[in-house]
């Protein structure tokens, strides 16, 4: 195997030639062009306004206070920088491959495959997360309406199994059932009341399966039907959000905005991954390029309008929420919009919010379920996946086989997996794609042999900005944050995080600590639902450290140091080193500032996700590379011996 063959590239000229063949009916099976700017912007809003505005905005507001609006601005700016890069590529190569095809042009086949594989995390695996969340909202809405469905058909198998085992363990140690966390009680009931086949318990999240089947059928039927459904859902949820803003504005008390940034810059940035999750999805618009009336003009406009509209909504909602209720009350609140209106006895609006959440989640499912088959279709056309994946339905003009496969890929895991297993992987896969697309624009910026589209990212020479930003960051780190910076550089030992501490203890130690803290701090412990990890996470660092001193724990259980501490800093070191290298390259090669800032911002958000997510993502990529070398490398249409080399 020739190492250079791993980086064989597609050319823009060949891609555009293939587009011409498709349009004349001589190339791949043609798809119907139904989408305009308004439709694309609606798809973007449908994808973005989902779980973020109904859940993660609460945690971010608690961490950053009203100043969380600056985090939304920062995240929107980062996504905006990435959107410029996506828009430029979409204008340059108007095909359905999105970041996969863009990377094929800029970096070569192996990187393109890695991007295509990572996009499975954003679209297919991300939809597992959304489907599970939709199920939770839907079943809660039914409960509110007085319709009760058994726990065993609304909970995934893993949550029910582990929750049952924990509940039994706590009861065996003397804990009363009513004092067990409510989620464990629900898992216990789901497991105990479920039908069985032998020793196997039939526990599955059937509402999640139901919505996936419905959305997959809609996407299979055609782009026109998907567009109409998306537009309708967007109109409904935007109308409800505007109603929330209009009503909430009358209950805003400006005193709740003081202090504006209670936890400083670090508090605001603490919610960066949660807020970014609220923006995932705008890039899915680029997968519809072959179904746009004028992709080179409309795709860039659709992306930008989607980000602008959603950012304005997020900022206004954040100000309304933190103005209605003090930021400190959003601790562990998973449904902040419903929470604030319940607190003000506006329960009629809470019901409307619940309906809006169900619609919002369904629209996200629609866009993601639409995006993944089109990525696989493009990979199949290039020979990296079996030919079946590029089959277009003769009547509906959709990638029919790929759509059905995506339906199974999302539906089956959603029955059995829990929410936390896939959320962070979705974010890191998305950010990695953003980094590569921004990097692709930088790679191609000075190449004169690459045809340009109708949209080009405004050029600002980065060498007049980046060095000064680096100097400012270094000065800030060694002045205002000198103590934290030196502790980071010297790898100074630190008190272990509650979640890591729990993992270092055996069940007997955990129960002994629960009993002691429950007796000495009963009121606070009860308010935390007798959940030790949650109880400790709610404390400030000083109180947490004081409590650890009273427990019979070894120093190795309390502190983290050496390699065990350094490994968590590896993503940050990667960010620092890459940023320095990019600054040097900017000075030497006059790199464009906007895609450069997009790459740096997205890489920073990747570093905030933690090393465990990087490891999980790395394992996912290794599996993908095995698949590539077993099939894709041998069947690629860019393989020198391939008879269709000219067509590729």
Architecture overview:
Helix content is 67%, strand content 1%. The chain is mostly helical and 648 residues long. The chain has 3 domains: 3-142 and 209-445, Up-down Bundle (Amino acid/polyamine transporter I); 157-203, no CATH class; 504-556, no CATH class. It has a two-stranded antiparallel ribbon. Strands 3-4 form a two-stranded antiparallel ribbon. The radius of gyration is 25 Å and the shape is globular. The two termini are 20 Å apart.
At the fold tier of CATH, the topology name of the largest domain is Amino acid/polyamine transporter I
Largest beta sheet, briefly? Answer: 2 strands, antiparallel
Number of structural units classed as domains: 3
| Radius of gyration, in angstroms, nearest whole number | 25 Å
Beta fraction of the residues?
under 5%
List the helices and strands and how they pair.
Elements: H1 12-23, H2 37-48, H3 51-64, H4 68-92, H5 99-106, H6 109-144, H7 157-172, H8 182-193, E1 196-197, E2 200-201, H9 206-221, H10 223-248, H11 264-269, H12 272-277, H13 295-324, H14 336-343, H15 347-381, H16 400-416, H17 423-444, H18 466-477, H19 482-490, E3 494-495, H20 498-503, H21 507-520, H22 522-527, H23 532-537, H24 541-549, H25 555-558, E4 559-560, H26 562-566, H27 570-589, H28 593-607, H29 611-635
Antiparallel strand pairs: 1-2, 3-4
Helix pairs in contact: 2-10, 2-13, 2-15, 4-13, 4-17, 4-28, 5-6, 5-17, 6-9, 6-15, 6-16, 6-17, 6-29, 7-8, 9-10, 9-15, 9-16, 10-13, 10-15, 14-15, 15-16, 17-28, 17-29, 27-28
């Amino acid at each position: 195997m020739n190492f250079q063959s791993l980086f064989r590239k597609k050319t823009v000229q060949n891609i555009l030639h293939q587009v011409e063949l498709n349009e004349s009916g001589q190339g791949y099976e043609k798809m119907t062009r139904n989408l305009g700017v308004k439709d694309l912007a609606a798809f973007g809003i449908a994808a973005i306004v989902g779980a973020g505005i109904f859940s993660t905005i609460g945690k971010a507001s608690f961490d950053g206070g009203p100043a969380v609006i600056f985090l939304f601005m920062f995240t929107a700016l980062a996504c905006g920088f990435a959107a410029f890069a996506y828009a430029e590529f979409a204008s340059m190569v108007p095909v359905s491959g999105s970041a996969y095809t863009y990377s094929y042009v800029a970096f070569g086949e192996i990187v393109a495959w890695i991007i295509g594989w990572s996009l499975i995390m954003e679209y297919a695996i991300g939809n597992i997360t959304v489907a599970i969340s939709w199920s939770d909202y839907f079943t809660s809405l039914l409960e509110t309406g007085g319709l009760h469905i058994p726990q065993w058909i609304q909970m995934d198998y893993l949550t029910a199994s582990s929750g049952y085992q924990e509940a039994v363990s706590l009861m065996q140690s003397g804990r009363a059932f009513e004092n067990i966390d409510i989620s464990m009680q629900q898992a216990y009931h789901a497991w105990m009341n479920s039908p069985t086949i032998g020793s196997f318990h039939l526990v599955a999240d059937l509402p999640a399966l139901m919505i996936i089947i419905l959305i997959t059928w809609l996407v299979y039927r055609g782009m026109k039907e998907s567009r109409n459904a998306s537009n309708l859902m967007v109109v409904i949820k935007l109308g409800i959000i505007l109603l929330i803003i209009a009503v909430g504005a009358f209950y805003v008390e400006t005193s709740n905005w003081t202090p504006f940034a209670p936890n400083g810059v670090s508090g605001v940035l603490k919610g960066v991954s949660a807020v970014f999750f609220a923006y995932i999805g705008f890039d899915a618009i680029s997968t519809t390029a072959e179904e746009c009336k004028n992709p080179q003009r409309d795709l860039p406009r659709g992306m930008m309008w989607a980000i602008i509209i959603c950012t304005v909504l997020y900022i206004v909602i954040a100000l309304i929420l933190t103005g209605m209720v003090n930021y400190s009350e959003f601790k562990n609140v998973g449904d902040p919009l419903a929470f604030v209106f319940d607190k003000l006895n506006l329960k009629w609006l809470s019901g409307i919010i619940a309906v809006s959440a169900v619609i919002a989640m369904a629209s996200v499912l629609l866009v993601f379920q639409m995006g993944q088959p089109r990525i696989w279709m493009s990979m199949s056309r290039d020979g990296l996946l079996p030919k079946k994946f590029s089959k277009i339905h003769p009547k509906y003009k959709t990638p029919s086989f790929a759509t059905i496969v995506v339906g199974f890929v999302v539906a089956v895991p959603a029955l059995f997996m829990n929410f936390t297993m896939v959320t962070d992987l979705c974010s890191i896969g998305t950010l990695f794609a953003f980094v590569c697309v921004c990097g692709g624009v930088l790679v191609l910026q000075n190449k004169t042999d690459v045809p340009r589209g109708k949209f080009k990212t405004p050029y600002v020479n980065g060498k007049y900005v980046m060095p000064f930003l680096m100097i400012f960051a270094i000065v800030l780190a060694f002045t205002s944050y000198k103590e934290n910076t030196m502790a980071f550089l010297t790898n100074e030992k630190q008190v272990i995080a509650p979640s890591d501490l729990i993992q270092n203890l055996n069940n007997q130690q955990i129960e002994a600590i629960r009993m002691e803290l429950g007796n000495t701090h009963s009121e606070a412990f009860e308010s935390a639902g007798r959940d030790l990890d949650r109880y400790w996470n709610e404390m400030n660092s000083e109180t947490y450290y004081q409590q650890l001193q009273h427990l019979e724990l070894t120093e190795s259980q309390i502190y983290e140091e050496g390699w065990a501490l350094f490994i968590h800093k590896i993503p940050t070191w990667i960010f620092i080193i890459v940023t320095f290298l990019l600054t040097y390259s900017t000075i030497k090669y006059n790199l464009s500032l906007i895609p450069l800032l997009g790459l740096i911002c997205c890489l920073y958000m990747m570093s905030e996700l933690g090393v465990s997510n990087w490891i999980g993502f790395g394992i996912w990529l290794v599996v993908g590379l095995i698949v590539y070398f077993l099939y894709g490398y041998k069947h690629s249409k860019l393989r020198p011996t391939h008879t269709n080399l000219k067509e590729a």
